[in-house]
Q: What sequence folds into this?
């Protein structure tokens, strides 16, 4: 089948994109930019956007399997390949060999296509790692708080053995007032129970160690602790 050149009217094939008589690019020709294809591959490649842009039906496979993240990885690699492809070779593959001028924007595509995903990846990893690290340090401070109760627990137990009753405060138990540290704000005795207040503003309430008299002396329970978030407490205190 034939049609006519939009410029000189000479007969040309219906699929011809350039007139053989006057070298005019026909209106039916759609230029497929190498930079554009790379940018689409970087940002919407997991849906096969770059393949649809190039008129390739197998972009459907990207769309069907985008949830596996495999198409995203493939598209990112393909975007790099597009950038590395020689412009002449690119035009042979996707533009019927037609050259319309040098494409710009390479630096911009590289910055947004290569560096931005790396920045996003670092951001995602940081969003996961930082809260985990903070929780780890908070749990470590809770452990320090529990260790700080040792002399108070001993003093309460000795007081009970000597007097058959529980001391009202640390002074009565014969233990000096607690000196605040970077992690523990205060440790005090209230009617035999030992209360621990953490220095971290993100941790509220108290670790509460309750004494229980047994035949062998005093045992301790921390299940009545009011500390929040409670997930920071040892499992024996929850």
A:
């Amino acid at each position: 089948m034939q049609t006519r050149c939009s410029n000189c009217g000479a007969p040309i094939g219906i699929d011809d994109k350039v007139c053989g008589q006057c070298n005019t690019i026909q209106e039916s020709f759609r230029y497929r930019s190498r930079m554009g294809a790379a940018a689409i591959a970087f940002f919407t490649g997991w849906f096969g956007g770059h393949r649809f842009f190039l008129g390739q039906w197998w972009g459907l496979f990207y769309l069907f399997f985008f949830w596996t993240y495999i198409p995203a990885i493939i598209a990112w690699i393909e975007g790099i390949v597009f950038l590395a492809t020689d412009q002449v070779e690119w035009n042979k593959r996707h533009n019927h060999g037609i050259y319309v001028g040098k494409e710009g924007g390479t630096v911009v595509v590289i910055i947004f296509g290569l560096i931005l995903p790396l920045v996003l990846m670092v951001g995602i990893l940081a969003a996961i790692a930082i809260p985990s690290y903070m929780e780890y340090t908070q749990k470590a401070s809770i452990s320090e708080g529990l260790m700080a109760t040792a002399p108070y627990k001993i003093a309460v137990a000795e007081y009970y053995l000597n007097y058959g009753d529980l001391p009202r405060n640390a002074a009565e138990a014969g233990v000096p007032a607690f000196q605040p540290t970077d992690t523990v704000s205060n440790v005090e005795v209230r009617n035999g129970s030992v209360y621990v207040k953490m220095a971290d503003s993100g941790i509220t309430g108290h670790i509460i160690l309750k004494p229980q008299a047994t035949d062998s002396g005093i045992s301790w329970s921390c299940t009545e602790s009011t500390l929040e978030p409670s997930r920071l407490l040892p499992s024996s205190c929850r």
